[in-house]
Each structure stands twice: as C-alpha cells, then as structure tokens.
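2.7 Reproducibility. Because tokenized structures are sensitive to small changes in the input, we list the exact sequence used for Response regulator transcription factor, including any N-terminal residues retained from the expression construct. No trimming or masking was applied before prediction.
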Amino acid sequence: MLRCIVVDDEAYAARLLVAYVQKIPGLELVGSTTNPIEALQWVQAGRVDVVFLDIQMPELTGLQFLKICGQRCKVILTTAYPEYALDGFEYDVIDYLLKPIAFDRFLRAVQKAQALVPAVAQPVPMANEPVAPITNPYLFVKGDSKNKFLRVSLSDILYAEALGNYLALFVAGQRLVTYQTLKELAEQLPQPPFLRVHKSFLVSIDKITMIDGHTVYIGDKAIPVGETYREGLFRLVRDRA
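Resulting structure tokens (single pass, no recycling of outputs):
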C-alpha cells in the first residue's frame, strides 16, 4: 500500500482528490489537510509515501514544500497554473496534474507512482527486537517569521516545554520557540529515545543525568514527572539498566 496525503487549501479540490484516492486499490489515505505545515510534519515523521500537493497555498507554497521535504517522499503536483510545470519537474515530481483533474488522468499519475515507489509493508517490531536506526536524524521547526524553518538535529534536542499552542524546544546551547503543540512534536519524534514525562514536558532520555523520585534532571534543569507518565519512564529506565 502506498500511504498518501492530499494537501490543498481549497476544500472542494481536496474532497475530489480524496474521493479519487479512495477508489484506487493500493492507496491508503493517511490524511487530507489545507495546512501545508501539518502535511510537512507527517512527511518528516515518515508517515507518507506520496503527496498530492497544490502549489498556490498561503504560508508555504508547494515549491517551498518541495525544497524542505527533499527526497523524503514522492510528490504529484495538482494545480490550476501550468507555468509551474518546469519548476516542479526540477524537484523530481512524479507528475503534474492541471485542475480540473479528470479521474483517468489522476489514475495515470498514480500508476506512475506505483511503478516508482516500492509499497513496502512496515513490519511490527516483536518484543525485545532492536529498533531500526533513525534514517532521517533531523526535523524542521517553524521559525519566528513567515516561511522560516529551522533544521534541528534530533541528537541535539534536550527537552521541550509546552507553552499553550507554542512550545519551547531546548537544543544544545539554544532555546527555540515554535508554533506547534507538544503532542504534534511527540508524533514527529522516535520513541524512544524521546518520551513524554509530563503533560507539559517531553525529554530525550539519552540526555537525562539523574532521576530522583518524581523529578528528572537534564544538566541543572529539574523537570517534573507526571503520575500518568511515571510508569512508562521507569519501565524504559529498567530496560536500559
């Protein structure tokens, strides 16, 4: 199965593509969104094989999306603007579909994707089976201005603290504030080594220097451990002892 998402800021266009995806065997619809930032998070988390991507979108255009995601997934562009075709193919897109998109043309694009992208089933790890290494050891977080994204190495992340709809991400020698929830960040990060220890905190267990009762320490920073998360933390610690 090829895991697909539809990204289009026009709800009608998105609904049409979703209906097309659901008609074709071998495609799994992971999600549909009008928000390219949300779609980028899915791609960074390794949850997507093929993106059906609009070009003209606020906040992040389709071409900017292509620059950021690199080779982490394949893309089929869907747009009403033929003048962007050459730019799209410079980013190695699978196909370029002009709106309004007929089903037979959509199907041909999907067949190209199925020929190019191996639909590999993801095995479920058995108990005590070693976890596969991280293949993309970084993520992009939204910066302090429009269309600004910062690349952060996972190995540099110490911990993150929720600030409502924002969060503070503490990396080696730096504090980054980004418009993202802690839940959204947790979905992007491999677990372990990253773990929620409190409703307001996520930590890298590789950076913990001490655990004392209901508190973990990363350097001089004392981070509370919520009752809901305590058992999971200590289970992981015992497994690594």
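Residues 150-240 form a domain with the OB fold (Dihydrolipoamide Acetyltransferase, E2P) fold (CATH 2.40.50.1020).
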